[in-house]
Amino acid sequence: MDLQRELLELYNTVFTYPAIDNHAHALLKVEHRDDIPFEGLISEAQGPALTEDAPYTAACYRATAQLAKPLGLSASADWEDIKRTRRAANYEQLCRTFMAPTRIQCILIDDGLGVVDMVYPYKWHDQFTGSPTKRVVRVEVVAEGILKDLFDTQLVIVGLDPLALFDSFSSRFNATLAAYAADPEVAGFKSVVCYRTGLDIESGFSREEVKVALVGSALRYESLKKVRVQDKPLNDFIVNTVLRIASGCGKPVQFHTGLGDNDITLSKSTPALMQPIIKAYPNAKIVLLHSSYPFTQEAGYLTAVYQNVYLDFGEIFPFLSADGQRDVVKQVLELCPTNKIMWSTDGHFWPESYYLGTLQARDAVYQVLEASMKRGELNLAQATGIAKRAFFENANRIYNLGLTPKIV
Which of 201, 270, 300, 403 pairs with 289 at a CA distance of 20 to 30 A? Predict the structure, then answer.
């Protein structure tokens, strides 16, 4: 077979093979379809940095061009044309227009994003996939729900017994996570400790410090009527607990790493900080999310030297420029074993996020693999094997989904 025919076969594999989206979020309900700035499709920024600056990024220019055709617009359409047209479209048809071309067979949805009343339940998304949607349980949300319930049952917050509070919380948190671990609807867990106190997670946490943190949370709740786990001893306790339970049940634990909004301390979002906790739980499957951008090479190092670490190359689609996306895919392949990489859209709120996350990912993967084949560094079997593993087979194995790819 000559090279051109081999490249055509690679192209067909990359662009048509079914995919497992190993990390995404729910779509907005029709009544809330326009309640969140649409610029969130192409940026993690907030406020004016999102609505005023993001439309001037290379990522936005590319997204505008790629969304124009499905919306029936001309190539000269601008960002405001895209927003105006989608607002006027039938929402059900809009969802189908952008979900159908993705060839996503299964979605693993983190349904703890914080806008539960505004989005559809995870099972609602089954209408767009060939296999049932699964849940990813966000552990900080679970912890906050338990704490709120405990605080609400106390008559006098100031009179809390730290030991009793710790024992009650620990017991309920362990039991709740154990129940999720046994639930076939739950594919895995997710931690956003990166946002709360950073990825320098300690395995040797102090019970006394956790008790102090719990009392501090109770006192904040008394004045603010809101629970947010934001004290390092408590956050470290939560992560250690889920890693211990996950070690026994075989379900992965996803960690937000790298790319995020301005609530993150960037220097604490590198997965390099996780080396001690990775060593402490060698039997826990640890998934580093979002390509760990801009720390992709550090994440690649961890996947190469620790058998229990995996790398998701998501969220960079469509947040980065096309050149940036290709560079990240190249960095993923620099050192990562290709049986340990998984793709995701980080799709959220808008069906267009799933569409762009798929289209751009397939494009970047094809271009990187094509260039390697042209240089004689990969043969066809190796290149197609990488694509199939990245888009489907690795997630199917790592999350114990037991799916068979549905080839159309």
Answer: 403
